[in-house]
Amino acid sequence: MLRAETIRNRHSDVFTFVQGDLASTATICHRPEETCPDSLVYLGNRKQLEAVSSPDAAILILHKDLLPEININQQWRGCLFSVSAIPAAMAALLKYFDQKPARFAQWGERHPTAVVHPSATVGANVMLGPFCVIGAESVIGDGCLIGSHTVIENKVKIGARTILHPHVFVGSACEIGSDCEIHPHSSIGSDGFGYAISECGKPQKICQLGNVVIGDDVEIGSNCAIDRATLTSTRIRSGAKLDNICHIAHNCDLGEDGLYTAGFMMAGSTTIGRRFMTGGNSVVSAHLTIADDVSLQGRSNVTKSIRRAGAYGGYPLQPLQDALRTAVNIGNLSKLRRDLKKVMNHLKLSSDEADA
User: Fold this and answer.
1) Cis bond leading into 37, ω under 30°?
2) Which one of 177, 219, 266, 351 is most buried, counting C-beta atoms within 10 A?
3) Which CATH number fits domain 107-324: 2.160.10.10, 3.90.1140.10, 3.40.630.30, 3.50.50.60?
4) SS3 29
5) pTM to 2 decimals?
6) Which active-site residues does the annotation give?
7) How far is the C-alpha of 175 from the C-alpha of 274, rounded, in Å?
8) In a 10 Å sphere around its CB, with 0-12 CB exposed, 13-18 middle and 19+ buried, how is residue 176 labelled?
9) Does residue 351 carry a pLDDT above 80?
10) C-alpha to C-alpha distance for 31 and 57, rounded to whole angstroms
C-alpha cells in the first residue's frame, strides 16, 4: 500500500508532483492496460500512455517527456507525478508492494520444525521457516527472514533484515551483512577448489580454512556458489548484485556496487574493482586485478589484468570497439577465404607458393 503523500515526502529527489489528491492510496501496481482506481501505474512511453484503460488510477507515474502530450487537468483524475527515469521510479516504489515478508510470515515467527542450537543468538522479529537449521554460536540479526530447509552452520554472523530464501547454505564462520538477499539453492562458503598434485599425480585436497565475508545490500541470485578462502576471506563488498548461476572462487575480492549477470565465472585469487559490470557468460581467470569502472561484453574472457577503466570484450580481450570490429571480421572470413582462392587461381599459385 502506498499513499501519494509518501512519494512527495520521501522520494522528492526522484519524483516531481504535478497534480492530484495527495491522500490517494494505491494498493496494487498494474500495467497500463489493467488500470483501476486502486492502481499505481507507470507510463514510460507513448505506447503505454495510449494503452491506459482508465484515467482513474490512484497514482500515475509519467515520464517527463510525455507531459506535453496529455491534457493534465481534464484527462487524469489520479495523483500525477513526473520522473526523468522510469527504472529509478520503479526501484523507489515497487518495494511498497513487495509481498515477500508475507511469504515467510505464513508459518508464524518460528516454525516448530526449525532447529536452533541453544548457543545461537536470534534477534527480534526473525522468521524461521520449516526445517531450517541455525548452528552453534551463530548470530542472526533483527528482522531476518530465513526460508525453509536453509542451513546456517556454526559461528555464522548475519546482519539485520537479511533474507535467505529456501534451500540456501551458509558455511561455518561466514559473515553476511545487513539488508542482503540470497535466493534459493545458493551456497555461501562451500570449500574452494584447492588441490596439490603428488609425485604420483594424485590430487590431494588443501583444506579450506577461511570464510566468505559479504557486505551490506548485496543480492545473490539462485544457484550461485561462493567458495570460502583457503586461509583468509573471499569477499563480496557492499552493493554488489549477482545474477543466477554465478561462481566466485576462493580468495576472490569483488568490489562495491558491481553487477554480475547470469553465468559469470571467476577463478581464484582475483580482485575486481568497484562498479564492475559484465554481460552474461563472461569468465575471469585466476590471480588477476581488474580496475574500477570496467565493463565486459557478454561472453568475454579475461586472461590478463585490466589496469584502466573502460569497456572491453571478446577473446582474447580487446577494447570493446576493437572487439566488435573483430566479431564483424570473423563473420566475413568465409567470403575472404573464397576471394583469396579466386586470386590464387588467377595467379596460378599453389598454397605452398603463396606461403613462400
Assistant:
1) no
2) 266
3) 2.160.10.10
4) strand
5) 0.87
6) 250
7) 20
8) buried
9) no
10) 11
